[in-house]
From TrEMBL:
Gene3D superfamilies tied to this protein: P-loop containing nucleotide triphosphate hydrolases
Protein's UniProt name: ATP-binding cassette domain-containing protein
Keyword ATP-binding listed: yes
Any one Pfam family match given in the protein's UniProt record, by short name: ABC_tran
One function term, GO molecular function aspect: ATP binding
Keywords: ATP-binding, Nucleotide-binding
ABC transporter domain boundaries: 2-223
Stretches that traverse the bilayer: none
Species in which this protein is naturally found: Parablautia muri
Family: Belongs to the ABC transporter superfamily.
Domain of life the protein comes from: Bacteria
InterPro entries assigned to the protein according to its UniProt record, in alphabetical order: AAA+_ATPase, ABC_transporter-like_ATP-bd, ABC_transporter-like_CS, P-loop_NTPase
Length: 223
């Protein structure tokens, strides 16, 4: 088994003027390359915080983390940026679309930031495949403010996976979707997993979806 994630968090502390909370106490996570993991747990348990740590968006915690075989505390800024853009696909609750751009340009944004050797590689094919699979062709020329919540959620999802990342982090990717679109997203995710051995970590409150992953991790709220 090749490990893609080896994370050991002693604790993550959020401090504000009056309160301090400590979450993810002695939390350990090992994930094999190509695994599909669901993370469930009550509100406030730390699911989104955990995804932020896994995705290298938050490095302010006590613990140790090896990702793609490299200790993350030794990563340089440009390497971090490259991993976040190309190796990790984010479908996060706060991944806002840029309102001044069309849905098509929003989805293609990761190509703009790609390193020179990756620029244009598979761009047209990948874009077409994703757009067809989640049926968003009709909104490509629209701006985000002209789209419904569910359409925006699908666009955020498309942007997160367009670079065919090795690791996809999805925070409630199906929360605002009807059954049909929910199924399209899950099918696309799982097909990517099958075809490219993409590792998938999904935070969800939907136990039916959670149980379709290889492993379900229950996060407990800290006492
Ligand atoms: N930036 C922040 N500053 C202070 N506290 C925070 C911050 N972000 C999260 N928290 C707190 O940390 C705890 C975990 O939050 P988190 O969003 O990770 O939980 P969650 O399990 O994803 O919840 P939900 O299911 O409601 O999205 C909560 O008590 C939350 O209030």
């Amino acid at each position: 088994m090749t490990k893609i994630i080896d994370l050991s968090v002693k604790e993550k502390i959020y401090k504000s003027k009056k309160v301090q909370i400590s979450i993810l106490n002695d939390f350990r996570l090992e994930v094999a390359t190509g695994e599909k993991i669901a993370i469930v747990g009550e509100s406030g348990a730390g699911k989104s915080s955990l995804l932020n740590i896994i995705g290298l968006l938050d490095r302010n915690y006590f613990g140790e983390y090896t990702l793609f075989g490299s200790p993350t505390d030794q990563l340089h800024t440009n390497q971090l940026a490259q991993w976040r853009n190309q190796r990790i696909g984010f479908v996060l609750q706060e991944s806002a679309l840029i309102n001044s751009l069309t849905i098509e340009d929003n989805i293609k944004l990761p190509f703009l930031y790609a390193s020179p050797d990756k620029k244009g590689v598979g761009e047209i094919e990948d874009f077409d495949t994703v757009v067809s699979a989640i049926e968003i062709r009709h909104i490509l020329k629209k701006k985000p403010l002209e789209c419904s919540g569910g359409e925006k959620a699908r666009a955020v999802f498309a942007r997160g996976i367009i670079m065919k990342p090795q690791l996809i982090l999805a925070d409630e990717p199906t929360a605002s979707l009807d059954v049909e679109n929910r199924e399209r997203i899950v099918t696309l995710l799982f097909n990517m997993n099958k075809e490219f051995n993409t590792t998938i970590i999904t935070v969800t409150h939907d136990l039916e979806i959670a149980n379709r992953h290889d492993r379900v991790i229950h996060l407990e709220r800290s006492k």
